[in-house]
Amino acid sequence: MSAPRLVVHRDKELMAEAAAARLITRIVDAQSARGTASVVLTGGRNGNGLLAALGTAPARDAIDWSRLDLWWGDERFLPEGDPERNVTQAREALLDRVPLDPARVHAMPASDGPHGDDADAAAAAYAAELAAAAGPGDEGRVPSFDVLMLGVGPDTHVASLFPGLPAVRETGRTVVGVRQAPKPPPTRISLTLPAIGAAREVWLLAAGEDKAEAAAFALSGPDPVEAPAAGARGREHTLWLMDAAAASKLPAGLHPPVSA
Ligand SMILES: O=C1O[C@H](COP(=O)(O)O)[C@@H](O)[C@H](O)[C@H]1O
């Protein structure tokens, strides 16, 4: 597991543009090295801001969209097409405007899908889909994602792993149903920390003053049960991509220079 490295940008717009440029490079490099790339998307304001920035980035055409697998770190367990679903928001922000292969867009199940409102069954189905995509070196559980992105909530949640709830303690399953989430909707599906840890690179996105306390706490070395963001680490790299407001409460020793 890699130690976190911080990159701080002037504001959230620049952070989204810089992260989009970074993502283009990672995808193009992975496609050139392995033929395909796999990226795990996050919901929330910062994740959708990054997707919107990717849609207008001059270098976006360097990506071979047909050789890109998209997965989700979590989903709000709502009916298909619900505007609050993370996949609906990602489609609006970018996915509907790029030539993706629909078979490679791995949305998490909806609450009116084949598993009905059984979030555990839906989570198990997504775990099976991930296992089927895992390669020989992946221990048969989840693919080695090239980049896995996570928006950091003001309470330090990432994906739908909230402080103190059972999902953040999960060590066996790769995907779980989540109930009684403190942020609506209460029922969700989420990758677990072991699944997140299979990614080559984990990027935590935090912009805005409301993320400042969460970032300072998560980066102070707490138990991930209390601060799930602290437990999200990539195998090769763990990057906190922040704006100056979200970094404003970091201790002086941790605060890197603002990039621009
Ligand atoms: O509900 C969710 O919230 C988090 C963070 O969202 P933000 O708007 O505070 O940035 C997000 O990472 C997660 O995917 C989503 O389901």
From TrEMBL:
The keyword Transcription regulation does not apply. Its EC number is 3.1.1.31. Hydrolysis of 6-phosphogluconolactone to 6-phosphogluconate. It comes from the Bacteria. This is 6-phosphogluconolactonase. Pathway: Carbohydrate degradation; pentose phosphate pathway; D-ribulose 5-phosphate from D-glucose 6-phosphate (oxidative stage): step 2/3. The keyword Acyltransferase does not apply. Keywords: Hydrolase. SUPFAM superfamilies: NagB/RpiA/CoA transferase-like (SSF100950). Residues 11-240 form the Glucosamine/galactosamine-6-phosphate isomerase domain. Pfam families: Glucosamine_iso (PF01182). GO terms for molecular function: 6-phosphogluconolactonase activity. Belongs to the glucosamine/galactosamine-6-phosphate isomerase family. 6-phosphogluconolactonase subfamily. NCBIfam families: pgl. InterPro entries: 6-phosphogluconolactonase_DevB, 6PGL, Glc/Gal-6P_isomerase, NagB/RpiA_transferase-like. Coiled coil: none annotated. It catalyses: 6-phospho-D-glucono-1,5-lactone + H2O = 6-phospho-D-gluconate + H(+).
